[in-house]
Amino acid sequence: MGQGLSCATTQEHGLFSAMQSGDLDTVKAMLERDPSLTHQTTAYDRQSALHIAAANGRIEILSMLLERSVNPDVVNRHKQTPLMLAAMHGKIGCLKKLIEAGANILKFDSLNRRTCLHYAAYYGHSDCLQAVLSAAQSSPVAVSWGYARFVNIRDGRGAAPLHLAARQRRPQCVRILLDNGALVCASTGGYGCPGSTPLHLAARGGSLDCTRELLAWGADRLQRDASGRIPYLVALKHKHGACAALLNPSSAEPLVWPSPLKFISELNQEAKALLERALMDANREREKNILKGTAYSLPSPSHSDTGADDNISEASDTELCCICFEHVCTIEVQDCGHQMCAQCTLALCCHNKPNPTIACLNPPVCPFCRSAIVRLVVAKVKDCDDADQDIGEIGSPKMRKARKSRNFSSEGSSSFKGLSVMSPFGKMGGRGSGRMAAENEWVDKP
Ligand SMILES: [Zn+2]
Ligand SMILES: [Zn+2]
């Protein structure tokens, strides 16, 4: 695990071993005897007591140290703060405590010039990531730096947290970052020189889930990296066949989270969650078609099918969407009050390819009465008693279910890693030495 704590070297000091094992009483007693120990550091890495407590998730010890006015931003040899170590090791309790104590979220280490946000994204601790983002919204960082700038903060090699999350196969972090304004097409290169986009790095890491999230957010399959390669070629090179299939520019385009929805000032969270789920389900269907008959079978996303069927069997005919007569009405247009299903709402607002010249000019209108859509909310079932129950079912547990299966498929996608490129890419993969030559055509030799 990265530049972890070289604990063997700390054994010389009873204090540090007591901290690692979480022996609060011993630590307390030692500090009573010699208060200067709070400033003691390990010999080589110069980890302070606070670093060790944070990295090991020893929240009681950490709190005690903070109460003794230890500087929460004390740094080790690599200029890492305790906050970075908490984010690295996913110690959410310690991380929150440090933030409460005023720890600075805008510190850079000296290894890669990374912040605690980079650490959380890289190691895939989505709870820590979320906590740091929440802190950024309410802290002086938002004022001095701007929140959007913080979310897209670059490390020493030009990588924003989104790049790291995509590269390290952390779909949940990818999603949270996108939701918080991470730039989906940002390149690691700066000022006009090309670099890798998050999509290139997802292709490199071979995460189908990250690839799907990024595509749904409008990531460009045709953007080139410093070597002139599109993400498809990166996936092929690293033998991530399933990712390559999705990234192949000739494959069906995924639905993209519709930019016109940004014009609807009040998109309530539940409605947004429903629409997102409908979008991801639609994309999974497309993936199935893309991967059908290839060596890559997707872990069956049974949740969506069974979920929808349940709804239909429970619903009376009157609740069916009047546009498709297929799904249940779950979205209500306001102010007019017309209802339709999430799929049709998406179809109304979605553009397969975001078109910057058109997409932004025409906010969507209600298909029934052509009035402007002021807001979208989750449709309420008006006539029966169990309305709350229905809405609850649509709102939360299914979402959890969807999230769960998303995790599941993320595990599943790792099994693609070991597969070699096979039949669907016979032409590319089977060419043997010719393949190298083909690849070199893309490489920009300096
Ligand atoms: Zn419909
Ligand atoms: Zn209407």
Structure description:
The chain is 47% helix and 3% strand. With 446 residues, the chain is mostly helical. Strands 1-4-2-3 form a 4-stranded mixed β-sheet. Helix 11 runs antiparallel to helix 12 and helix 13 (198-205) runs parallel beside helix 15 (231-237). The chain is globular and about 75 Å long. The two termini are 35 Å apart. One zinc ion (ZN) binds at residues 321, 323-324, 326-327, 340-341, 343-344. It holds the Pfam family RING_XB3-XBAT31. Pathway: Protein modification; protein ubiquitination.
Query: What is the H/E string?
Result: HHHHHHHHHHHHHHHHEHHEEHEHHHH
CATH class of the domain at 259-292 and 299-406: Alpha Beta
> Beta-strand percentage?
under 5%
Average pLDDT, rounded to a whole number, is 77
Strand count: 4
Shape: globular
Tally of separate helices: 23
Strand order of the largest sheet: 1-4-2-3
Low-confidence stretches: 1-12, 301-315, 352-356, 383-446
| Major sheet details | 4 strands, mixed
Q: Enter the CATH topology name of the domain at 259-292 and 299-406.
A: Herpes Virus-1
- Class based on secondary structure composition and strand pairing: mainly alpha
Q: What's the architecture of the domain at 259-292 and 299-406, going by CATH?
A: 2-Layer Sandwich
N→C terminal distance: 35 Å
Return Rg in Å: 25 Å
CATH homologous superfamily title of the domain at 259-292 and 299-406: Zinc/RING finger domain, C3HC4 (zinc finger)
> How much helix, percentage-wise, in residues?
40-55%
Bound molecules: zinc ion
InterPro entries: Ankyrin-SOCS_Box, Ankyrin_rpt, Ankyrin_rpt-contain_sf, RING_XB3-like, Znf_RING
Keywords: ANK repeat, Metal-binding, Repeat, Transferase, Ubl conjugation pathway, Zinc, Zinc-finger
EC number: 2.3.2.27
Region (Disordered): 395-446
